[in-house]
């Protein structure tokens, strides 16, 4: 039962009917239409709906007319504590640094209650800790979790599980509650210094260990993790600080001990190292827990190993003269056994290369000797490898490189640097330099840098050319006379003697070929052949055959031309003007056969009207023309055909009529030449003192003549 509706019109006789409408009417709420009692048909949940709005009305049961206006009323659902608090975000995972101060805030948790917070204590929640004491605590009102102990150490315990409870009704008896779990992890800080497990270590290293190789490991323990446990190892002192080095492995945080210098058991049998391990990332809040480093002592024991022989030098350089006899000593290598046993050493050469076969070595003394005769100009340097092994243990072998330099001896004579093409101009003057020559020597500068040039003294004095030694390893070729002729001699040979400055001095003879050439005035070579002279000495057989062939062809052309002239016909007419000259030329189109006005046919019908026959004025006719004068009585009887036949016969028999050959005579010689006569009839057969230099000014047509009779000085020398 919720309530009862009553109308003032209701007399209790049942004539009034109550009607209920609105939210939940008929489903959640029902009404007794006679008494007006309202009941609920199901339980109400305030968290789903807090109130309902309903309308009630009283009507006349008989007439169904309202007795009163419709009235509205509200049914409010009163809250009861039927909802427990809930943690919507749980469970929680959180971290807090180790060694934090007591009361350090870790996390704030919040629980919600669906009950009405404005009515009673149904939604009033308080927090408490069910699990996690005495390490953590929670604020009852705010739900803030805090550390409850000083200096919580991660290395002692790292993970904690805390259970927090939220209870409504302000924590009173009968209140509802809910709980959640908070997983707390302590994070690491650098609060633990590194420590070596032992204060003394001992390490065995054989003396054969290679430089740069790792020979041992050492590690200092650190309870911290991550970067707080990073370590750096150093050798702070000890007699082995210069022999060993230490580095840190980033992954394992171990100290790697390496060898910096080779070990020698015979010189030092042990080393002492003081090794320090220190943290690289320090937290000054915990410096009072330090120092964050530790030191230990490491003793390195050097192990004795049978070593190969040791050469006194890392490499050798030796010298020997070229052309030395086979078996000549070159040098000696020395090796010894570095071990305490000091075994004897045997030497040998590994014949792995061709150069190794050119030398031999004494197995006992290590003396290297030649096995062939060397030529420095062929190979100036040899590289060989000498090996040494102990007689007691031949497997232990050491090697050393040996370089052999071949020293030079003066065994190569000098020679011309190249094949010279020497040219002398026909118009050269005495003392003119026509070529500068140099020499080369295969020997080095000590046996051939100074050259001396001269002509062969065993020959007679050369009348054409001479040689001048320039004292700078060059020589100049000079002319001895004036004027050379290709027709007389086009090639000269000049033997040259060259000697070097070595000990003993060597010399050689070379022959220079000098060609005679025609040159320009400036000294440039124009031609070195004799094709300009018609002498047998300058013409080859092929050239002569070509010239004869050309002459034969010219003669054949002349004979053919004469034959053609004789076969031509004699002239046909002797008249200066052709009888057809009276033909009138006009541009109008003719009238055909009926047009008789263009040409006067009377001349053909009347021979007397034709022009008189005219003869040539430059020759006399040999045949008299036929008489063309007939009695007038017979003119009219002459037929045109007969007239034409008569004229044709005259033309066939008269040799002077056209066409005839025309002869023109040129008898004018021209004016006198300004150059005068160039005839050699009055010239002397030998060279005269007359100056012919003016011939060079006449132009290129007289260049050859100027070279023959004049003295043209070339401007350059080839």
Describe the structure.
By secondary structure, the chain is mainly beta. The protein is built from five helices and 38 strands. The strands form eleven sheets. Strands 31, 33, 36, 37 and 38 form a five-stranded mixed sheet that branches. A hairpin with a 5-residue loop joins strand 3 and strand 4. The termini are far apart.
Secondary structure blueprint with pairings:
Layout lengths: L2 E2 L11 E7 L6 E3 L5 E4 L10 E10 L10 E6 L15 E6 L7 E4 L17 E6 L4 E3 L5 E4 L11 E9 L9 E11 L12 E7 L7 E5 L12 E7 L6 E5 L6 E5 L10 E10 L13 E11 L6 E2 L4 E6 L7 E4 L2 E2 L8 E5 L9 E3 L5 E4 L10 E10 L6 E11 L7 E2 L5 E4 L7 E8 L10 E5 L9 E5 L4 E6 L11 E10 L6 E13 L5 E3 L13 H26 L35 H4 L26 H4 L4 H14 L49 H7 L9
Parallel strand pairs: 7-13, 14-20, 22-29, 31-37
Antiparallel strand pairs: 1-4, 2-5, 3-4, 5-6, 8-11, 9-12, 10-11, 12-13, 15-18, 16-19, 17-18, 19-20, 21-24, 23-27, 25-28, 26-27, 28-29, 30-32, 32-35, 33-36, 34-35, 36-37, 37-38
């Amino acid at each position: 039962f919720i309530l009862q509706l009553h109308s003032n019109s209701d007399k209790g006789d049942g004539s009034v009917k109550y009607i209920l409408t609105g939210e939940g009417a008929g489903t959640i709420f029902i009404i007794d239409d006679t008494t007006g009692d309202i009941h609920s048909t199901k339980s109400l949940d305030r968290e789903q709906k807090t109130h309902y709005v309903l309308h009630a009305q009283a009507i006349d049961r008989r007439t169904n007319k309202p007795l009163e206006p419709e009235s509205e009323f509200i049914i409010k659902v009163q809250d009861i504590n039927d909802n427990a608090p809930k943690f919507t975000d749980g469970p929680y995972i959180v971290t807090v640094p180790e060694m934090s101060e007591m009361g350090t805030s870790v996390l704030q948790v919040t629980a919600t209650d669906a009950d009405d917070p404005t009515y009673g204590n149904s939604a009033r929640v308080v927090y408490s800790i069910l699990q996690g004491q005495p390490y953590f605590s929670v604020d009852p009102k705010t739900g803030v979790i805090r550390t409850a102990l000083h200096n919580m150490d991660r290395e002692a315990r790292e993970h904690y599980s805390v259970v927090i409870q939220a209870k409504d009704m302000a924590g009173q008896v009968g209140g509802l509650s809910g709980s959640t779990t908070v997983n707390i992890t302590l994070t690491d800080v650098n609060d633990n210094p590194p420590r070596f497990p032992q204060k003394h270590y001992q390490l065995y290293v054989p003396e054969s260990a290679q430089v740069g190789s790792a020979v041992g490991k050492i590690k200092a323990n650190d309870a911290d993790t991550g970067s707080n446990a990073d370590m750096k190892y150093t050798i702070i002192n000890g007699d082995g600080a210069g022999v060993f080095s230490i580095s840190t492995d980033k992954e394992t945080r171990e100290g790697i001990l390496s060898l910096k210098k080779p070990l020698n058991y015979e010189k030092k049998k042990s080393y002492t190292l003081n090794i320090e391990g220190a943290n690289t990332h320090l937290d000054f809040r915990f410096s009072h827990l330090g120092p964050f480093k530790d030191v230990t002592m490491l003793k390195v024991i050097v192990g004795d190993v049978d070593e190969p022989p040791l050469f006194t030098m890392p490499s050798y350089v030796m010298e020997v003269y070229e052309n030395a006899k086979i078996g000549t000593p070159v040098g000696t290598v020395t090796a010894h056994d570095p071990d305490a046993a000091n075994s004897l050493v045997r030497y040998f050469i590994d014949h792995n290369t061709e150069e190794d076969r050119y030398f031999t070595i004494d197995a006992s003394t290590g003396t290297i000797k030649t096995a062939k005769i060397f030529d420095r100009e062929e190979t100036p340097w040899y590289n060989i490898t000498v090996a040494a092994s102990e007689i007691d243990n031949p497997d232990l072998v050491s090697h050393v490189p040996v370089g052999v330099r071949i020293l030079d001896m003066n065994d190569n004579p000098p020679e011309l640097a190249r094949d010279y093409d020497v040219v002398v101009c026909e118009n050269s003057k005495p003392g003119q330099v026509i070529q500068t020559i140099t020499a080369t020597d295969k020997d080095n500068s000590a046996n051939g840098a100074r050259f001396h040039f001269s002509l062969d003294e065993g020959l007679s004095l050369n009348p054409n050319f001479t040689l001048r030694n320039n004292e700078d390893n060059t020589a100049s070729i000079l002319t001895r006379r004036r004027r050379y002729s290709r027709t007389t001699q086009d090639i000269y040979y000049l033997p040259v003697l060259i000697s070097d400055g070595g000990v003993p001095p060597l010399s050689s003879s070379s022959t220079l070929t000098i060609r005679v050439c025609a040159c320009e005035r400036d000294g440039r070579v124009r031609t070195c052949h004799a094709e300009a002279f018609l002498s047998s000495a300058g013409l080859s057989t092929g050239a002569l055959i070509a010239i004869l062939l050309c002459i034969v062809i010219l003669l054949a052309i002349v004979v053919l031309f004469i034959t053609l002239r004789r076969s031509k016909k004699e002239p046909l007419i002797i008249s200066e003007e052709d009888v057809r000259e009276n033909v009138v030329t006009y541009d109008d189109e003719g009238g055909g056969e009926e047009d008789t006005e263009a040409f006067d046919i009377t001349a053909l019908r009347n021979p007397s009207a034709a022009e008189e026959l005219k003869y040539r004025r430059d020759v006399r006719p040999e045949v008299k023309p036929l008489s063309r004068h007939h009695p007038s009585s017979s003119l009219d009887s002459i037929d045109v055909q007969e007239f034409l036949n008569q004229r044709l016969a005259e033309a066939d028999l008269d040799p002077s009529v056209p066409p005839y050959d025309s002869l023109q005579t040129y008898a004018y010689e021209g004016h006198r030449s300004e150059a005068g006569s160039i005839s050699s009839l009055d010239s002397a057969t030998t060279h005269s003192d007359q100056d012919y230099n003016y011939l060079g000014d006449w132009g290129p047509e007289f260049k050859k003549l100027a070279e023959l009779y004049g003295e043209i000085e070339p401007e350059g020398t080839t």
